[in-house]
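> @MW can you paste both from yesterday?
MW: sure, first one:
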Amino acid sequence: MPPGAAAAASAAPGTAAPVSAVSGTVAPVTAAPETTVPGASPGTRTPHTSLPDGDPPPAAGPGATPGSEPWVRALLARHWGLDPRTTGVRPLVVDGAAPLSHTAGLWQILEPGSRRVLKVRRFPEALRPPAFHEVKERVAAHCRRHGVPAGAAVPALDGRTGVRCDGTVSELAPWYEGALAAPADPAQATALVHCGLRLRRALDSVPGELRAELAAATAQPAGGDEDWSTALVDAARLLERAGRRDDPWSRLVADTLRPAVAAGPLLYDRLTAPGRPTRPPAVIHSDLHPHHFVVSPRAGDPSATGTAYAVSAVLDFDHLHVGDPLLDLAWLAEAAGRVTGSVARRRALAAFLKDAVRLGLLRPGEEVLLMPLLLAHSLPVIVRIARDILENGVRSPQWPGYFALLSPERRLAVHRRLAVAGRSL
């Protein structure tokens, strides 16, 4: 893993939207966060025209394909005023490969003295309505005021954070020093969980008017995920199909779907039981997997296990919406459940439960709802990928990474451990 993490990670699979649009992204980082229009940055500012409604004029001439490098250069010049002569543009590469994202293009933007990331959403199902981007930034700013290092967008020249052009929506974001969290490390998992709990408290305090605006802007969730119970039926069908084949891709699908189908009774028992207590809807991030936390060592502050870490940025609020706040806690519980070593893992889960209950974010007994919620949340994404592999012949090298990130087998194991840890609450 490179020594840094880009602030514009794409959303993770299994989010409330398309496969985030799908996941986290890693890259070297040097620049500090920026929260204002980069007027002091080097480069000539060029005027542009933007229409208040609908797409603005094309970013480039007829020969430039949306999402291509010439198109990106023209977009940056027109909407952010970055001088093409001094601005470097290159596809974001992680360990020699493209980041884990299939609905967005990610680009390194190199200016004299700074680096940024441009995220271009290319498919209609990945697009949000124009109002969403402004509301998202206001929620992120609210979180920053409450001590949460929520990633900030770099506004375009007209002040917008989401630029609509040629059927795409683009956002420019700063880079943050650090690396994406590795929850196998107890110290990094601790930093992730503590920051996630602070974020959950900040989101609970979002003013009602802003929460209502977010609900209106996300009334049609991006991606249009199918219901988990429908996905479960399709998972059983696809598992049977994969079992009749003996190629590596079919075995990958079968190994992923088998525990997902086995989880069916648990999902129905925990999520559909009559009288199951529910939480009032709240603003939720909904995609708090480890790739959306940038961590850095805390100088001169060793932990009991070695290096101590702090979260320098929480990324990708693209799937922000009003929903069940237990979903955010489920992502944090899973991170604690990924710590290496049985003893350290038990301690991490026990510490998560103790802190979540102490802060009033979780009631005793709700711990057994967390992994069923997370399994149900990600199941439609897993099934869509399985369908692509088995029925559409789409065999992206990114699919194994998605399956690993959303592993039903791991979540069932975390569920069992949470149930045991919850008995001591």
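MW: second:
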Amino acid sequence: MNRATRVEVENGKWGLRRAAAAMFPFPAVRVPKLRFARVSGVLVVAVALLLIIDAGDALGQCGPWGCKLPGSAPVAEPPMAGPVAPLVPVPPRGDPPAAVKQCYYSLVRIKCGAWGGSGTYLGNRLVLTCEHVVRNAQQSVYVTFPGDQMVEAAVLATDYASDVALLELKGGSPPQARGVPIEEGEPSLGQAVYSAGYGKSGTLAISAGRVSKLDQYTISYDPTNGVRRQRRTTEASGLSEPGDSGGAWLTDDGKLLGVVWGGRQQDLSVSATTGLGAFLRDACDRWRRPFPRPDNPPPPAVTPPVPPANPPKVDLSPIENRLADIDRRLATLENPPKEKGSPLLGWLAALVGVVAGGFLFFKTNDA
């Protein structure tokens, strides 16, 4: 736009359209005329939006971390989230269930020379423990039941990758030890488990916990071929110490879910091998043994009735009199009294004797 045009625009000689066309030399666009109602409606909406925004500034500014009042200090940024510690399930409360307590006589100690650990009696003279407990066993293996009954055993089968071993007793088990049934199902997160073992003190202890991790893998060493393998394991909360290896993982209903092989004191976790059914079936099929089942319970002992502390008084004199009468009758039957003869019969017999004697006397004289 030249100087003369700018002067004309400033003096008001040009209209709005001509001024705009001169300032912006674009093709002319026809602007439709707006009605007064539409223009006033747009203005009303704009004013309402301004009032709402102003009111929002007066009430406060809210965001995901709270509200900030006008004139206050700016809200501090939330702290950066640090590493989240793994959730440790809350252990079951109270005493172990009755089914777990019934397994007490089937939780055994394993001793083989300088090595030892814990184990579980399954029934049919079979005991399950860890492979590393009996790995260096160059002497006899002994299984000690609660009550200190010791039975010699032999290693029947082992699995280095799973760290489990199956023992067979050479003698009978105590009648109280029936055996623990196998839980062939897979564990689930949060499932209650009871870790049992003899630890370093040699005293049976049971620690309650819940399954916290599934399908964990660790490296295990196979001494037969020097190969390191991955071991599938399961973790749960609980207490474990040296000597618990080979101990039992028991469920609420008294079944063997896994075999304890290790643990960590820093986070109170226990590691165990689960899925024991496949190993036991393979070992029993190979050595032609029946699958372990709990032994039949012994017949209940017949206890004599206990007499009452203060028995009631009973008059026994009628019974005693009756017994005495029976004794007298029996004595009479055994020794009957001699019958006395009649006097008439005696005289008659004497008369017969006299007559007979006289007859013989006279007959002799006649001759």
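> thanks! Helices lie at 3-10, 16-23, 36-59, 98-101, 277-287, 317-334, 343-366.
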